Amino acid sequence: MLKSDFNFPFSNSMDNLIESNTSSIFNLAKSLENQGRSVIHLEIGEPDYHIPKITIDSVKSSIDNNQTNYVLGQGLFELRREIANYYKRRFNIDVNPKKELIVTPGAKFGLYLTLYSLINPGDEVIIIKPSWPTYSNLVNLFGGKIKEFPLSFKINQDITIFKSLLSEKTKLLIINFPNNPTSIMVNKNYLKNLVQIILAYRNLIIISDEIYMELTHDGKVNSMIQFSDIINRLVIISGFSKSFSMTGFRLGYVLAPFQLIKVLLKLVSNTITCVPPFIQMAAVHTLQLDEHIINARKFYKEKMEEVIKFLKDKDNISFPFVPNSSFYLFFKVKNGYESLALDILNKTGVATIPGIAFGENYKNFLRISITRDTDQLFKGISKILSFIEKNLT
Amino acid sequence: MLKSDFNFPFSNSMDNLIESNTSSIFNLAKSLENQGRSVIHLEIGEPDYHIPKITIDSVKSSIDNNQTNYVLGQGLFELRREIANYYKRRFNIDVNPKKELIVTPGAKFGLYLTLYSLINPGDEVIIIKPSWPTYSNLVNLFGGKIKEFPLSFKINQDITIFKSLLSEKTKLLIINFPNNPTSIMVNKNYLKNLVQIILAYRNLIIISDEIYMELTHDGKVNSMIQFSDIINRLVIISGFSKSFSMTGFRLGYVLAPFQLIKVLLKLVSNTITCVPPFIQMAAVHTLQLDEHIINARKFYKEKMEEVIKFLKDKDNISFPFVPNSSFYLFFKVKNGYESLALDILNKTGVATIPGIAFGENYKNFLRISITRDTDQLFKGISKILSFIEKNLT
């Protein structure tokens, strides 16, 4: 095709659009690989615990059974019913699969649709920090005004800050426990205290990203769904990528009051039509595998302990945030700086996520995902350490 | 969960959002089925020519080969390269797979992202009519101002109207040949004449939805990509749903200058992350099956001839648009009215799309898709005819 001498007149919305920082470092690492460099991927949240065999088998049998056509935009009823069963089993809470659930191609898309449907330019949105960069990216894209809520994960301290941020003008609160990038899950009492504050702000909508919910190392599972007083303005974003290692399947859901689901359904009908039925069928069977989750927890717990043990006496790094869930390690680097992750990638071939992606206050942090086989993982960590040793001290 | 006594304060963008009309009648038909009614689906554009065996096999082998992780947001390079090969084979045109292509979960999502990236409130968009309702829905969602371009499919008449609609203020033109709902493909001379007019409007961006491109009954395949003078402001939307019956796989692509692809890539990184790799791998193999397409054309051509032959002498219906491609029949009903399709569905259990979905001028039209097995198809058509006979004459 011709070289473009035409300037596309992009819409004003695009002025606030930036690429997802986690995606951009992944894309960069992949392109280095394509150029022949060997890269150790510690950047992406790609679980290494195996995908359940039944997941693979269900895709194959569903496709053999001709489940390859257009299906309902809301998602297969079988899957929505199974998600409802899951919440019943975990929390003894009744979710209406006909009205309170919609299936999405990944949790991120559920979040995108929810924020699109709710944010007007200028609306105030409180976002916890550190946090997944997509929250800020999307709120900025829709013109929302972000108020950062820096977490210490200590309830008294956090409550004081939370109160100081809230006003009648605050429209949305975005929370994420267990948290990415710190891998910290707070206890139920912490959540209860947050809810106590929220009760006083009756117009506040709570968006709770619970994608890492199952992967607590002690097996204690909590969800905002347990607080019935706020359930009429609670939006839960979740999916199958982390608990069941189904990242490439792109499957998530939104659990929310029908009023919101109805609007999301209209958006789905104008964007993606539906999610592949054979992928949805795989999730129907997968979601019943409580045993698999128990084993995944144990797997990540042991691996995290090993990593922490290895790193805890190192001079140039420290852990203000001690992980008790999932598989990220968010650590502080002495004399670290904004583009450190890029330098490490270019010089050592180890991909990590720069702390700045998760908030302005974390320029001297890095996030690694411990989801590589132990050899690669420790090889990568050692390369990071020697780079720091050589260049920053 | 609790009944909602909370009113979600939706964003102003949602004021202009309506459900896709084709999806809504499909959803209604599905819900009638769930209530135990038997429904003949003549509404949805679900090809009935078989999915290639290699498509099914490739999904299964890719998933067995662990192609189940996150991949590049732009799409697998293998697939982009194969799409470029395809355009080379068909039109001897070089497409740069690194820069000019992005893979999307369905053609609709490619269209959504493109229009989102380009339309500011108030921007003028010319849309051909009759046409797929998603064009108007999305332009309205983004606040664009629609100018309808009613087609006669006769070049002189259409050119005159086209000229009268264009101004320096026109930002976008959305075209779709072969056209849904009429199943009419225009000849290359028609397209050439359109392009001649477009050349005078150097700011106009052309969005060409070519999802039905391959399914011409005479096998002559034309694309806007053949007109090199406009290629720097041409966006082609296409996908695998119709040519290869891969509707439930949700796979499409956008072919456009790099400037636009870069922006779409940022949007993808904040919405869907990527498309399942095992689905993309299936398309890599499928796209090489030229023989399959030749057979599919023949299949739909013969079926369409049979339907036309059956319908051509009926008193109460007529065909202002004679199909020469794909599998829709858009016909006029004597004394037809806006909600006729709904009445037919409720009374006879045959689902069709109301003409109004495709444009204000087509209130007395219905669209049927002939993609059901012959028994069901003719049973459905007969029920429609006898409903019309009984109630409208």
What is the CATH top level name of the largest domain in chain A? Alpha Beta
- DSSP, total strands of chain A: 13
Determine the CATH superfamily of the largest domain in chain A. Answer: Type I PLP-dependent aspartate aminotransferase-like (Major domain)
How are the strands ordered across the major sheet of chain A? 2-8-7-6-5-3-4
How far apart lie the N and C ends of chain A? 51 Å
Helix and strand string of chain A, N-terminal first?
HEHHEHEHEHEHEEEHHHEEHEEEH
* Quaternary organization: homodimer
Mean pLDDT of chain A: 96
- Provide a count of the helices of chain A: 12
Instruction: Identify low-pLDDT runs of chain A.
Output: none
Share in helix of chain A: 25-40%
Q: Enter the CATH topology name of the largest domain in chain A.
A: Aspartate Aminotransferase, domain 2
Task: Offer a few descriptive terms.
2 domains; Aspartate Aminotransferase, domain 2; alpha/beta; seven-stranded mixed sheet; Aspartate Aminotransferase, domain 1; homodimer; 12 helices; 393 residues; four-stranded antiparallel sheet
Topology:
The structure is a homodimer of 393-residue chains.
Chain A: H1 21-34, E1 40-41, H2 53-64, H3 77-91, E2 101-104, H4 107-118, E3 124-129, H5 133-141, E4 145-150, H6 155-165, E5 170-175, H7 188-199, E6 205-209, E7 234-239, E8 252-255, H8 258-269, H9 277-286, H10 290-311, E9 317-318, E10 328-333, H11 340-348, E11 350-351, E12 353-354, E13 365-369, H12 374-392
Helix pairs in contact in A: 2-9, 3-9, 4-5, 4-8, 6-7
